[in-house]
From TrEMBL:
The keyword Metal-binding applies. Transmembrane segments: none annotated. Residues 29-219 form the Thioredoxin domain. The lineage of its organism: Bacteria, Pseudomonadati, Planctomycetota, Planctomycetia, Pirellulales. SUPFAM superfamilies: Thioredoxin-like. Keywords: Copper, Disulfide bond, Metal-binding. PROSITE patterns: THIOREDOXIN_2. This is Thioredoxin domain-containing protein. InterPro entries: SCO1/SenC, Thioredoxin-like_sf, Thioredoxin_domain. The keyword Metal-binding applies.
Length: 224
């Protein structure tokens, strides 16, 4: 029995010495860079083992095909493509909405209905762009526009690809839009296609100011 205990003690001491020697042989991290066995990833993809290879003088640039949008084209409820160039020559008011919105969009489009009635047959158009284009097909938009008695020539309802509409909102009209998300603003665009201003439609004074500006633009067009 005594012999077995001695053998066990010898084995335990041997294992302990082995672990101690293994720890002593392992390199100590200095914090100044990766160790010889650490994997380092670079912008170019392959791993680098030499710390001098980590930094790169090459700057990241967006792809050349992702330029900032300055014009757009969308599908109107009639099924026809409408381009921003088609709207030039008279002022227009842009808004974002979606047809299944139960509250804000209904109020917003009721305001546009009142604007349409006030400026009936005059040189201003209203452009309503859907932020739920998967639901708002041209057929759906025709049904929705009919609820407000939208004139097909003066009040246009537009749809298209959601990613493209996000870019139109952000890059052209400076409005954050996403699927079923939009601001409560009207964007007034002048006859040259430049943004004149942003108007919060729930605020009566801003809405009145927008009407005055529209009349001013149309008067300038008539006297030109």
């Amino acid at each position: 029995m005594k012999t077995l205990i001695n053998i066990a003690m010898i084995l335990l001491v041997g294992v302990g010495l082995g672990l101690a020697i293994r720890v002593l042989r392992k390199p100590v991290a200095t914090g100044s860079g990766p160790g010889p066995n650490d994997v380092v990833y670079t912008n170019d993809g392959p791993s680098a083992l030499d710390p001098s290879e980590i930094e790169s003088a090459t700057l990241s640039k967006p792809p050349e095909d992702e330029e900032w949008l300055s014009r757009f084209e969308l599908t109107e409820r009639s099924g026809k493509t409408v381009k921003s160039e088609d709207l030039a020559g008279q002022p227009y008011v842009v808004s974002f909405f979606f047809s299944t919105c139960p509250s804000i969009c209904v109020k917003q489009n009721q305001i546009i209905k009142e604007l349409q009635d006030e400026f009936e047959g005059q040189g201003v158009r209203f452009i309503a762009i859907s932020v739920d284009p998967e639901t708002d097909t041209p057929e759906k938009l025709r049904e929705y526009a009919a609820r407000f008695g939208a004139d097909e020539n003066q009040w246009l309802f537009m749809t298209g690809d959601l990613t493209y509409i996000r870019r139109i909102g952000g890059e052209i009209f400076q409005q954050p839009v996403n699927k079923q998300f939009h601001t409560e603003r009207f964007v007034l665009v002048d006859p040259q296609g430049a943004i004149e201003g942003f108007y919060n439609w729930p605020e009566k004074r801003q809405l009145a100011a927008m009407k005055d500006k529209i009349r001013e633009m149309m008067k300038a067009q008539e006297s030109a």
